[in-house]
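Researcher: Let's try something more involved. This one mixes different molecule types, so please make sure each is placed in the same coordinate frame as the others.
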Amino acid sequence: MSFESLLLMRHELVLLLAIVLLLIAEIGTNDSQKSIISPLAIILFALHTIVGFLPLQEGSLFGGMFNTTNIVATMKNILNLGVLIILLQSWKWLNATENRVKVSEFYIVLFSTLLGMFYMISAGDFLMFYIGLEIATIPLAALAAFNRHENKSAEAGIKLLLSSALSSGILLYGISMIYGTTGSIYFAEISQSFKGFEPIQVMAMIFFFSGMAFKISLVPFHLWTADVYEGAPVSITSYLSVISKGAAAFVFMIILFTVFKLFTPVWQDMMTAIAILTMTIGNLFALRQNNLKRYLAFSSIAQAGFILLGIISGTATGMATVVYFILIYIFSNLSAFGVVSIISAYTGKDSISDLNGMYKTNPKLSLALTLALFSLAGIPPVAGFFGKFFLFTAAAEKDFYILVLIALLNTIVSLYYYLMPVKAMFINKSESPIAYFKTDKISQLGLAISIIGMVVIGFASPVYEKILSFCFGI
Amino acid sequence: MNVIFFYIIAAAILGFSILSVTSRKILRAATFLLFVLISTAALYFLLQVHFLAAVQLMVYAGGIAVLIIFSILLTSNVDFTFEKIDWKKQVFSGLLALGGAAITILTLLQFNFNSLVTKQTVTPDIRSFGRAFLSYGDGGFVLPFEVITVLLLAAMVAAIMVAKKSKQ
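Model: All components are placed in one shared frame. Result:
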């Protein structure tokens, strides 16, 4: 192995460098100099994002434990973009006096979890996959408990930790069955050792499926989602709902397509049932929420159900639509969370009824939230429409007509609740609407990037075609 | 002989695990957990994987169980007793657990493990473990070994973040 070949791990190495630099900066500064940490972290991360977009060769390292292909690099770049937007959006909240003491820890832990996701996506064997998954989960529980003096935040932390421990246990049991019956942890060797529908191997696949379903919060493994999303700080909630979920969906898809390709009929049946349940229950529960974070939590459960529509097809088109949908979902959900986090950082309010009459006082924010919700609902001019439309096409190509029909019905239900906050802002009257406030430049920048992304990507067909050219099917 | 020992150890693991979960005093539960971990180490000794057995004894029985007991003594009221769970819940969750176990065991028994050709790449002695940990070629484990250090670092920083007092 030559030294240059380590450059295949560029995403991870640059991010690790950023983590180490932040650690040194934290040690080397005194209390009055701590204000440089945030700009430093954002600049380092922006550099890391740019470096990620440079062309990268395909290849594998460490005896096949680490793989990188064009689609894997694209997934990492998409996650990078999302994290960059979150960093910009969390600026105001993080620099409030009560949080300033923990700023560098916040960045170090956040970047480490992202590093874990990168290793998870690039994994060529179950060991690296599992280690990556744990790096992406355990420290995140501490982030959810960031405001640990608030009961809700502490509760969110412990709930995330316990439910992810349970799901990891199930997942690991499945992996141990696979190792026990095939004698290998490498994806390539395992998929060759599978000979027929051996019951124990099907069961291992089901356990793996359940463990991942926890991470993506699919029904019936979604019960932790709403409480954790509500209790955690808004920035962490948006990180959980787009980055964690996106990374888990990517790796779930890759492993189903490569390792479990023999069991395709089995997981397609399971996924049909789970997709229908997830979309329907996510939507029905979202209808009755008043807290904005809980509302977005159930909306994100429903969106996860739509993501399954692309995975289920098992084709290269399906994979491309999932990656494309998650890219759009990151932009639209982060626009929504961006507005919510700005409102909660400036006024401390976070329920839908607080939005009443907001258009009169804060027209720009209202417009941004409206666009974001349109995109999540899938209303044509915004990118969300194309994302959903492509997912439906991918599933329909493989004759999942009933599933697509139910998904369409669910889209109609979701229109109702996505328009509720819009109605509150534009039509409802309020005695005391949220007063006018001026948003700081950095939050504005974060919001602007996500809105531009959301509007432009829908019309930029080269993006989708580029992704499609990298994808593979079963 | 080995078979008899295996069943004794297995019974100990099962019994202590059940006691650990059902005990209503938290310190007792932790102590039973310690016994579970020690019995697991005994199982490894029986299988002649001495390295793993030593690790199990040192890390789990010696380190983690003691850590758990310490943190219980430092934080919670030792005399605290969990409230009794009402019988409906007990019956329901018992049935569910038994059903799950039955399905898993039946599936496991169907597989013919003897048909597997074991390809032993690493002979189980300390020297070859060390080499496997540090080799970067096929079957080498240096990458996971190094990546775990990131996990430890992140967990440590995260723990500091939770414990840190805000100055006000």
